[in-house]
Amino acid sequence: MVKLNRLSLACILGVLLLSSGFWADFLASLVRGLLPISEETGQPDSTKQTKQPLANCHVETSRPAILTIFAGAEIGTGSIVSSDGLVLTNEHVVREVGSRGEIHARQWGGTLYKGQVLATNATHDLALVKISTKEPLPTIAFAKPEEIQSGQGVCALGSPRAITGVLARGKLIGTRGTSDLKSAILLQPGNSGGPLLNQQGEMIGVNKSIWLSETGENVGLSFATNVVTTTQFFEQNKSKSVPTESPIADHVTPLPLPSKPLDFNPPVIAELPYKTDSPYRPYPSQPSESGAHLGAIVDERTLVIQIVEPESPAEQAGLNAGDRLIKVNNQPLERLEDLKAFLATKRDRATFTVSRDNKPQDVTVEF
């Protein structure tokens, strides 16, 4: 029997591998297994983008508990947190009418109410309002603080342009020094006081401000009072009663509220220090209607979606505030007129290519 030492065996094996191309083929097979395969060519396709799912947050059950708040000239959002009509919102939303002042409210679905401010906390920008109801109202539950994690998907429901129940979706980044929650989510004037929700539709915070760039642009970062502070405020003030000298009207009372969405474009506050957070008042970049056919309001300069209208084709397809429209049916979109011209053709379906998180993604919309 011939005995081979380790060096001889290694040399023989090396010759076999090199002569047959075994090593190169083996590595190539490993690489091919790690890359997606293009359906058209059968070759690795490292540029193809997979659709990134956005949080849904049980919007179908959360949305009925959302109110548009009208307090003097201010328009904001409220969350119904008790079935007898207790509502959480921002202090700056009701500041004009003052503590114990009267507000008007419109629920998702159109029911109208009068309400009254029970308590405010300017430090944390919270307010508790009581609306009158003869029937139990749908509510939003508080999330468990220990289950809140950085990086989780979040949703915001609000009333930009006085459209009740507008959905925006994003990601929780973390907290800042004041323990406020910081999220990558594009909010607008009218979102003030609305809930920041986890994927189970539970409130993890109350939205109150956005971050502006040095030029006053909304960069898609927002802040919310955390659920611990919010719950403490609610528990401390929920037993306060409405003064008898200023009764709340019965529910479903006709009120002087707008019958259609407002063109809510407040002026830029020149003295506001930029590169800071703002209570949704500056609006330097005016969005324009893209047409009811899509159900989105788009910035005319950047083609970034600002607002996705509830139950619209855009929302049902998964388009989100912050998405930048790049193409439609593989045709470039360079200006708002290009989008309007396409929508005027009244197609039954279209595939929009959007930039989301700086990555291209296709979204099919059925009209």
TrEMBL record:
Top-level taxon of origin: Bacteria
Presence of keyword Protease: yes
Gene Ontology BP term (one): proteolysis
InterPro entries assigned to the protein according to its UniProt record, in alphabetical order: PDZ, PDZ_6, PDZ_sf, Peptidase_S1_PA, Peptidase_S1C
Domain PDZ: 288-358
Keywords, comma-separated and alphabetical: Hydrolase, Protease
SUPFAM superfamilies noted in UniProt: PDZ domain-like (SSF50156), Trypsin-like serine proteases (SSF50494)
Single annotated GO MF: serine-type endopeptidase activity
A Pfam family reported for this protein in Swiss-Prot or TrEMBL: PDZ_6
Protein name: PDZ domain-containing protein
Source organism phylogeny: Bacteria, Bacillati, Cyanobacteriota, Cyanophyceae, Leptolyngbyales
